[in-house]
Specification:
The structure holds two protein chains of two kinds.
Chain A (H helix, E strand, L loop, with lengths): L1 H22 L8 E4 L5 E4 L6 E4 L1 H9 L6 E4 L1 H4 L9 E2 L8 H6 L4 E5 L5 H9 L4 E4 L4 H15 L4 H18 L8 E6 L7 E2 L4 H8 L2 E3 L7 E2 L3 H7 L3 E5 L6 H8 L3 H4 L3 E4 L10 H12 L10
Helix pairs in contact in A: 6-7, 7-12
Chain B lengths: L5 H32 L7 H8 L5 H36 L11 H15 L6 H24 L8 H24 L5 H9 L7 H20 L1 H7 L3 H6 L4 H23 L5 H13 L3 H23 L10 H23 L3
Classes of the chains: A alpha/beta, B mainly alpha.
């Protein structure tokens, strides 16, 4: 009897150990290892060939690295990008992602934004055995770092792309880094894609304005908010920047803010909304802003 | 024998009403003057008077006349419109919980605005298409609700109107959610519009909404006596010679006109139409001949102060005024319910 009992317990224990073992992959010897923005190291035995990219920034980086043929699925924001190959499935909005649709694509890697609200989604995905890499680029530096790591992930060399971008960024910063506060052009930025809100410090747009030799009139705030009309008039911006999707033009700003410098000097500019993101195109935004804000310093950037 | 001189009682009543109206009008003008001084920069009253009489620097004129005064005047108009529409709805439905939005027009207007924002339908520029679509859909909603409730004989029972309002409102709310889902970049714009705010106020909006609000308000005020008669109940009102169906339709149309004119330019500002008539009733009594003017002026004063709060409570930013009216209105409404409960000994 005791022998039977010992055998049963031993086999149960062995079964538990074996079943445990298949759940984790910490023992895998990966040739590719990436540390994402959660601080988690994700290992791959080979460069992923079936990638689902849930973020237009990431999709743009993949396209820029010329690896878009490895994409099998994107989210709604990536589906609108040019350069996307045929047959890539649009999975809609990440917050209402269908797990069935995702698994049906048989991805070997899912790239997603490391937002707090995606935490449970990421957990579910990993629970289903998917490899998830979560990035959260917020400014120029973290965007370049994300690009490097995605290059590592894809087994593709991102150095050329990153160096090219860095060179363009540094070319602008070299001339603007030493500008005094008085030399910087004051800017009011209005984002139609955020319902007309302006931005404060801690955002990419604010950083780009600073690097381009300007100063955001609302740099003393944080995040995004609807600017108070009187405050804009009082801060008297020399330049107003809106996205090219905005319906507001010079006449609108004249009606709303009256004779602020930007209206009087006809310095209302429209920026391509797709460039004000944490993607390789942020250098385009930087160069556009540099020319508008400091035209004497950057004659070579004239369109 | 004690004689009751009815005429002198009535004259005293009319005199009291006159005083109330003049008092509230004075309070409105004072509120406007005081709120003109408040803002991102506090401007002293003497400067305000100087600017209003034609002087002042260009920047001061821009801030005081184009930014603040246009916003304050629009706020007063919208507050008056919503309050009088609320009083009219409460009278027609004989229900203290009625508001201008009781027939679902707020959801309809929100749907109109959202398709204008997302699809660009209805006009060349957003500044035209959004108010236009919101206005059109207000009336479309009213038309739908009315048609659903109408019986064969042309009679429109009040209970059916309310139920139809709930149903049509729920339908449009679902459509708005659908628009929000597919809106992409425009989601924030839709959400902000629905919160209700005066940050985009311009004189042209005042110019367009003023005739409609004046017309609707005048119609409702002229029908004050009939609103009084409706209070005794439909059958009694019919026996007193009132064409209940027709009067109800006219009042609903007028109330919807002023609501649509307000909502088109400012989004869905809640609680003004619900709470102000109640406050007015507490102060001046339920006779619509004084209740309507009191609601109009009270609504205007209320909105002027609420919007001043909306543009000053957050530094450098705008808080949608609909949030403030709801935050203040709901607790006040709870207070009204509780005090009424005590009054009636429940």
């Amino acid at each position: 009897m005791t022998v039977v009992a010992v055998l049963v317990v031993a086999s149960l224990a062995a079964a538990m150990v074996l079943l445990q073992g298949t759940g984790t992959d910490t023992d895998d010897e990966g040739t590719i290892s990436v540390v994402d923005d959660r601080g988690k190291t994700v290992n791959f035995t080979a460069a992923p060939q079936r990638i689902v990219s849930l973020g237009s920034s990431f999709t743009e980086i993949i396209i820029a690295l010329d690896e878009s043929d490895r994409l099998v699925g994107v989210d709604y924001s990536g589906a609108a990008l040019s350069g996307l190959p045929e047959g890539v499935v649009d999975l809609g909005k990440t917050s209402s992602l269908s797990m069935e649709a995702l698994i049906g694509l048989e991805p070997d890697c899912v790239i997603i934004w490391n937002f707090a609200m995606y935490e449970s989604l990421i957990e579910s995905m990993e629970g289903l055995g998917l490899k998830v890499v979560a990035f959260y680029p917020k400014n120029v530096d973290s965007t370049l770092s994300t690009m490097e790591r995605m290059g590592d992930l894809l087994g593709s060399d991102a150095t050329e792309l990153v160096d090219g971008m860095l060179a363009r960024v540094n070319a602008v910063v070299a001339k603007t880094a030493n500008l005094t506060d008085a030399q910087r052009t004051s800017v009011y930025l209005e984002l139609a894609s955020k319902g007309g809100q302006t931005t404060g410090n801690g955002t990419l747009s604010n950083e780009l304005i600073y690097l381009a030799g300007g100063k955001n009139i609302f740099a003393n705030g944080t995040g995004y908010w609807l600017a108070n009309t009187e405050e804009v008039i009082m801060r008297n911006p020399s330049v107003i920047v809106v996205e090219n999707s905005s319906a507001r033009d010079l006449q609108y700003f004249k009606d709303t803010y009256g004779e602020v410098d930007a209206v009087v000097d006809d310095r209302v500019y429209r920026i391509d909304a797709g460039t004000l993101t944490t993607s390789p195109r942020l250098v385009d935004a930087l160069e556009d802003l540099a020319y508008w804000l400091q035209p004497e310093l950057f004659p070579e950037l004239a369109p | 024998m004690v004689t009751v001189d009815v005429a002198s009682i009535q004259n005293r009543k009319y005199a009291r009403w006159g005083t109330i109206t003049i008092g509230l009008s004075a309070a409105l003008i004072i509120s406007i003057m005081v709120c003109l001084t408040i803002g991102a920069v506090n401007i002293p009253v003497e400067k305000i008077i100087e600017v209003l009489s034609g002087g002042g620097t260009r920047n001061e004129r821009q801030i005081i006349i184009n930014v603040r005064l246009s916003r304050i005047v629009l706020g007063a108009l919208v507050g008056a419109a919503l309050a009088v529409a609320g009083a009219a709805m409460q009278g027609v439905f004989r229900n203290p919980m009625a508001s201008p939005y009781v027939l679902g027009v707020s959801s309809g207007a929100a749907f109109g605005a959202s398709i204008a924002i997302v699809l660009g339908i209805g006009g060349l520029s957003g500044t035209v298409s959004v108010p236009l679509m919101a206005f059109v859909f207000c009336f479309l909603t009213l038309f739908l609700v009315y048609t659903i409730s109408r019986t064969k004989g042309g009679y429109v029972p009040v209970e059916t109107l309310l139920l139809a309002g709930i149903a049509v409102g729920a339908f449009f709310t679902a459509l708005v959610s659908l628009m929000k889902y597919f809106s992409g970049d425009q989601l924030t714009a839709i959400v902000f519009w629905m919160m209700g705010g005066l940050w985009d106020a311009k004189w042209i909006q005042v110019g367009i909404s003023l005739p409609m609000i004046v017309l609707g308000t005048a119609i409702i005020w002229l029908l004050s006596r009939d609103l009084n008669t409706l209070m005794v109940g439909e059958e009694h009102a019919l026996h007193l010679g009132l064409n209940v169906n027709q009067i109800r339709l006219v009042i609903l149309l007028a109330a919807s006109l002023v609501t649509a004119a307000a909502v088109a330019f400012t989004g869905i500002i809640g609680f003004v139409g619900l709470v102000i008539p109640h406050v007015a009733r507490l102060l001046v009594g339920p006779d619509h001949r004084i209740l309507i003017p009191a609601s109009i002026l009270g609504g205007a004063i209320f909105m002027v102060w609420m919007d001043t709060l909306a543009r000053t409570v957050l530094p450098m930013a705008e808080l949608p005024v609909g949030i403030i009216t709801a935050l203040l209105g709901a607790p006040f409404f709870i207070y009204l319910i509780i005090s009424r409960r005590r009054q009636q000994g429940w």
